[in-house]
Amino acid sequence: MAGDTDDIDGLVAKLNAGDATARADAAERLCRAGPAAVTAAVALVRACGDTDDQVREWAAAALEELGPPPPGSTPPLVELAAGADPLAAYWAVTLLGRSGKDAADAVPALATCLGADDPAVAERAAWALGKVGPAAAAARGPLEQAAGSANSRLARLAREALHAIG
Predict the structure, then answer these.
(1) Helix (H/G/I), strand (E/B), else coil: 137
(2) Spatial separation of the C-alpha atoms in residues 60 and 162, rounded to whole Å
(3) Which residues contact 30 (CB under 8 A, 6 or more apart)?
């Protein structure tokens, strides 16, 4: 299955099914598919906001194994980064960071995430802006503000991002 796109597409369809058991099974199978499940990246991020604990856990585990998301993923990831679910936002921001300079269009959303209520999302946004590099220059002001944060990890990641931006 690891190389079969039809199987991955079928699992994505099940991930969006009404039954929690089927969704959890699909998320687990996508996790076991490893990097071959990259086309399911956005669906897996959405699943991080599922009401079922097992679905969320398997979706997050699957995302751990993925590299950058496929081309064209930036718009839905930006939408998920701005959403109310902190786990989905965290993973959306993470995948945008893994996209590096290809996520330049996401810089305004990532800059907004620096002020997220969830510290993990804010910290990951600073990390992601650093991965975008010089194309994230528009986020310099919010990063400078984050660099003065009382959250020492956020402050350090913001300083590192400012250095990466140049």
Answers:
(1) helix
(2) 28
(3) 8, 11, 12, 15, 37, 40, 44, 58, 59, 62
Same domain, 44 and 97: no
Q: What is the pLDDT of residues 20-59, one digit of tens each?
A: 999 999 999 999 999 999 999 999 999 999 999 999 999 9
Three-state SS at 69: coil
- CATH label of the domain that carries residue 137: 1.25.10.10
Helix (H, G, I), strand (E, B) or coil at 80: helix
- Do residues 110 and 132 make contact, with C-beta atoms less than 8 angstroms apart? yes
Rounded to whole angstroms, the Cα distance separating 54 from 160 reads: 35
Q: Which two tokens stand for residue 102?
A: 């290809």
